[in-house]
Design goal:
The protein is an alpha+beta fold and 141 residues long. The protein has a single domain, classed as Electron Transport, Fmn-binding Protein, Chain A (Pnp Oxidase, Chain A, Roll). Helix content is 25%, strand content 45%.
Length: 141
Amino acid sequence: MLAKLETILRENSLCVLCTEAAGNPYCSLMTYLLSDDCRTLYLVSTRESRKFKNLLANPRVSVLVDSRQHPTAGANIVSVTFAGLFQTLVDAETERVTTAFAREHPELTEILNHPDSVIFAIKLTSYLLLDGPVDADQGDL
């Protein structure tokens, strides 16, 4: 994986998850956890949310991660738009990721403890990396 992709994924924890259902796009600001191989994002929602219903209807998503969380003076904003696929988790993986979310993101305690919460994965399949307004790179993962 490109070093810039890995850096932006590891240095940030917020993304915009874009879903679609019945021809209507929907964007959600989300906190994510990153898999060790940098190819999967883990997210939490509720089963009754629009985003989760959209994921069940259409597993193809777009995810935006950028460097605005940690700006560097004089540096370009770097952004990556990923294409990805929604995946459900098995119980053991859900427990592991829930524990990691609780440890890394205590601000998510309310949703993690919600009786309707669900942890899911987005398998990243391709990317478009922009370093400033014109420097672009794209490829498959």
